[in-house]
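Design request, tokens follow.
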């Protein structure tokens, strides 16, 4: 009887110890879970704070850049600049493909390139879209660049040739290497263009550190690229030039032409400073290279 009581007592004791062990294990697991959850929350919170600090620092760096100033306190845009893209071939996304002159092989093939048009869409009216397609098919004989015509705006800024900005408070001169093209931006002017031209009529003003140029009075004799994108004489371009670093400009052009497009659209790209010590615009008088193309068929045939 005594042994039975002892065994019963031992079993109760062991049972109580087992329950205590289970409770202790539960408490430990709970504590570990709470510590792990708290640690995870702390880690996540630290990561969020780090990201916020990084974002603020990045934004601060972007906002911190202050361009060198001219004597009148405006951002200094003087210098020789050039676009490094393939927009002169096609302002929209395009794959590489064979060029139009088979004898030149890869030397005149069309390189692949990312577009500079926001949304990669040029919103042509239906009839204008058909004209654009026709232009592309007749590129070698119809593109104004082939004929050494002045390139127009905005195309002059992203042809594969440099251009130079000469800045003063009243006027900003932009001189382009291709075809010796140039234009004057009249600052805060109310003058009107005497006639329509290839390069249009440019009137500028400053919005903070951004040069804004309103360009009107175009003729219809320029294209946007070699892919046949074109406009009419109702073209209106608003350009924005902003210094974003010592050696780069952010360039944006808003295009409006109700005769050709269903709505305004934008293109945007960086322009880079030419950093060579002896950088300069060289003469590229291309008219003589196009004379045979333009006037050869008019040559008087010799009589035999």
């Amino acid at each position: 009887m005594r042994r039975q009581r002892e065994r019963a007592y031992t079993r109760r004791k062991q049972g109580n110890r087992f329950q205590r062990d289970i409770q202790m294990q539960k408490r430990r697991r709970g504590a570990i879970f709470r510590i792990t959850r708290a640690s995870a929350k702390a880690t996540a919170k630290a990561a969020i704070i780090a990201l916020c600090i990084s974002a603020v620092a990045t934004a601060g760096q972007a906002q911190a850049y202050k361009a060198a100033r001219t004597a009148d306190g405006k951002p200094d845009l003087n210098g020789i600049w050039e676009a490094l893209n393939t927009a002169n071939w096609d302002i929209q996304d395009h794959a590489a493909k064979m060029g139009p002159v088979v004898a030149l092989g890869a030397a005149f093939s069309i390189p692949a390139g990312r577009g500079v048009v926001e949304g990669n869409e040029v919103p042509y009216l239906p009839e204008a879209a058909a004209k654009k397609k026709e232009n592309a098919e007749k590129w070698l004989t119809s593109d104004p660049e082939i004929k050494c015509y002045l390139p127009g705006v905005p195309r002059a800024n992203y042809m594969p040739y440099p251009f130079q900005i000469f800045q003063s408070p009243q006027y900003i001169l932009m001189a382009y290497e291709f075809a010796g093209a140039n234009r004057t931006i009249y600052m805060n002017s109310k003058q009107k263009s005497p006639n329509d031209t290839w390069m249009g009529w440019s009137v500028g003003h400053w919005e903070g550190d951004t040069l804004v140029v309103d360009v009107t009075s175009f003729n219809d004799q320029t294209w946007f690229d070699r892919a046949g994108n074109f406009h009419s004489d109702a073209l209106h371009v608003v350009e924005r030039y902003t210094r974003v670093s010592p050696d780069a400009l952010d360039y944006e052009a808003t295009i409006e032409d109700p005769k050709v497009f269903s709505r305004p659209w934008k293109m945007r790209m960086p322009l880079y400073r030419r950093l060579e010590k002896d950088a300069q615009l060289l003469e590229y008088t291309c008219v003589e290279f196009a004379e045979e193309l333009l006037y050869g068929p008019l040559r008087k045939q010799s009589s035999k």
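Comment from the thread starter after seeing the answer: thanks! Confidence is low (pLDDT under 50) at residues 55-62.
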